[in-house]
DNA sequence: CTCGTACATTCCTTGACAGGAATATAACTG
DNA sequence: CAGTTATATTCCTGTCAAGGAATGTACGAG
């Protein structure tokens, strides 16, 4: 269930910012730290989390570590999202009615 | 930035389980607690988080509170995911090469 | 009005995580 | 080799979220 690592990694706004930044191209740790307004150690730690979640790859270049986005794990998110995507395609009102087939009492009557 | 609330809500595995459960239809708090192996207070609290993230709606029926999934906020996730989706559409190998202007060492993935 | 059911909320404790400072490590430079 | 750059790691601290136990609250039945 490395799924958990993925969600945890993306749950942090700074890490989402890093990932978004890497969308524009590879960056060294220092660049990432600066562009995201993070301290170097903080950037380093966030990148570690992203690496362990498989979202980022690193390539060493002299003393620098160039980080590259690996969007592959996000396919899992996409897959997770799939069943829900169908739902917001249908009207939400219709959704409520359609799902309301429970052995419970009926009569929707939302106060909305 | 209620985006944060959404990510935070879905970052928890129990809450994802609840959401997945509600995919099958509305449930009372008690049912959710039981089917997810949660205590009643725990379920109640998780549902509160989901409600505040807009992922779940509640309809009161006698003493019971029937919770219904509202997938609408997930569209934000979908939108967030969009730029990345393109990337894994291209071959990941190609991506790697495209971003990789200078072939070098690849990290051997410390552990998993 | 009293009781029972279904939930919500509070209080408390614990564990995970983030950020900063300082330090360690690795790689290039001369 | 010493020094510098770029990054990783450790230690410490504060914060915040989760879980459990106990209690509060709303609703309906009788």
Automatic annotation (TrEMBL), chains A, B:
Keyword Transcription: yes
Coiled coil: none
InterPro entries tied to this protein: ArsR-like_HTH (IPR011991), HTH_ArsR_DNA-bd_dom (IPR001845), HTH_MetalResp_TranReg (IPR051081), WH-like_DNA-bd_sf (IPR036388), WH_DNA-bd_sf (IPR036390)
Residues in HTH arsR-type domain copies: 1-89
Entry keyword annotation includes ATP-binding: no
Superkingdom per UniProt: Bacteria
UniProt entry keywords in alphabetical sequence: DNA-binding, Transcription, Transcription regulation
UniProt-listed PANTHER family: TRANSCRIPTIONAL REGULATOR, ARSR FAMILY, TRANSCRIPTIONAL REPRESSOR SDPR
Protein name, as recorded: Metalloregulator ArsR/SmtB family transcription factor
Organism for this UniProt entry: Streptomyces thermospinosisporus
Lineage: Bacteria, Bacillati, Actinomycetota, Actinomycetes, Kitasatosporales
